[in-house]
UniProtKB/TrEMBL annotation:
Residues 1-21 form the signal peptide. It comes from the Bacteria. This is DUF4861 domain-containing protein. Keywords: Signal. The keyword Signal applies. It holds the Pfam family DUF6807.
């Protein structure tokens, strides 16, 4: 048997669905090869990294990594992808200096995890937890508006509460001044659908709204917890309601390995596509897109903004930023807390302008500021963001974290050669 066939046989035995017993290799702690991680131009610390596995079939046996220097066991998690190679994910513990390479050994068997990322269905929301700590809740059931507000303000398809590692809630729901700004949401404001002006942002206008449609998948694990849901942009201006866009949200919460982390970290990928042959036209406008409303009680006096260009509330509105932070507190006696949105360089019109409100605690990345655009049938708009939910004011290393997100480190998998018995 030539070398290529021997290697293919080894991969099938190691990673395929077929359960095989290899006499010369024990089921636990069998060495499969190595994974090398090379940091980019900035240091790498507690960040997710990944590598494709060479076999397209599902991995049934647990795997882990070993740091040869410390003998520390590092958990891994497998992402299965239709039509693509499975992907192995890990969060590298500790720090790699810029340009430094670390080689880890890939072995069979599970590594003990101090805590996992889990998803709980509360009957109203999908609550994502890291260990015993709540990170966020995605509201899939319609949340009725409070009795003192118009019923049209009720909604689903938003994230609230968002909670820091220290237990502070940094989002709001049905804020009295602008009750349509609930938690974290994605909506467009000035739109034209089938020749009619519509609006998915100001839901009291009763022209349109965004709502939860269905759960697609959810996954828990030692590296991440992931929720995939489908949302609908519903136009209400015609003779009957009609879905203009179907939007897939992939929400992935990463497990922070430190016992007392500075922040929680999660990603959202939005895949918005036309639900019919009708495009959605988006004329130039000053807000609309991926938005977050800050905590209840955050006022102009006790809420601060900071963009990647060093701009603040006073001069940062519509700054084309790689990231933007909002931090606030209810009283002068409290400490600050907040969240940072990192915008991915593949996003439409990156760097996107960020809408910073002159008095309210909310911000939104909004491509519509730069002129008319549209979402057409067969061409989805895919946007990606990373969120850092932190105690204290804006993180000092946000540029470094953005670089790790935008330009992931190089990761290489080298499988062990088959033994003579396996040939």
């Amino acid at each position: 048997m030539n070398h290529a066939l021997r290697l293919a046989s080894f991969l099938i035995l190691t990673f395929s669905l077929v359960v095989c017993h290899i006499e010369t290799v024990s089921a636990e702690n069998a060495s499969l090869g190595t994974i090398s991680i090379r940091a980019g131009k900035t240091p790498l610390r507690d960040q997710p990294v990944s590598v494709d596995l060479p076999d397209s079939q599902a991995v049934t046996q647990p795997l882990h990594l070993i740091d040869p220097a410390s003998q520390e066991k590092i958990p891994v998690q497998i992402e299965t992808r239709d039509g693509q190679p499975n992907r192995l994910w890990l969060i590298y513990p500790g720090t790699l200096a810029a340009g430094e390479t670390k080689t880890l050994e890939l072995k069979t068997g599970a590594a003990p995890a101090a805590r996992e990322v889990t998803i709980k269905d509360t009957g109203k929301a999908y609550q994502i937890m890291i260990g015993q700590h709540e990170v966020l809740s995605y509201n899939y059931k319609h949340v009725p508006a409070p009795k003192d507000l118009h019923p049209l303000y009720g909604r689903s398809a938003h994230i609230h509460p968002i909670v820091t590692p220290g237990g502070k809630v940094v989002s709001d729901e049905f804020p009295p001044d602008h009750a349509h700004q609930s938690g974290q949401f994605l909506a467009y404001t000035k739109c034209i659908f089938e020749g009619r002006p519509t609006n998915f942002w100001e839901i009291k206008s009763n022209k349109g709204r965004v709502r939860f449609h269905k759960l697609l998948s959810k996954q828990s694990g030692p590296v991440f917890g992931e929720l995939q849901v489908e949302q609908e942009f519903v136009d209400l201006t015609g003779p009957a309601e009609k879905v203009a866009l179907k939007e897939l949200w992939t929400i992935r919460v990463w497990n922070q390995l430190e016992a007392d982390p500075e922040y929680w970290m999660y990603d959202i990928t939005s895949n918005a596509r036309c639900a019919s042959d009708s495009p959605l036209l988006l004329p130039e406008y000053h807000y609309g897109g991926m938005a977050i409303r800050g905590g209840r009680g955050w006022t102009k006096e006790n809420c601060r903004f900071l963009t990647s260009n060093g701009k603040t509330r006073e001069n940062g509105n519509h700054d084309r930023s790689r990231w933007c932070d909002i931090s606030g507190r209810k009283t002068a006696d409290e400490s600050f807390s907040g969240f940072t949105i990192l915008s991915h360089p593949q996003n439409f019109r990156f760097p996107e302008p960020v809408r910073i409100h002159p008095s309210m605690p909310y911000m939104v990345f909004t491509p519509s500021v730069l002129g008319d655009w549209k979402i057409e049938p067969g061409t989805p708009n895919i946007s990606r963001y990373r969120f850092l939910v932190h105690d204290g004011q804006a993180l000092s290393n946000t540029d470094q974290l953005w670089n790790s997100y935008a330009h992931p480190p190089q990761v290489a998998l080298k499988l062990a050669a088959p033994t003579e018995t396996e040939k």
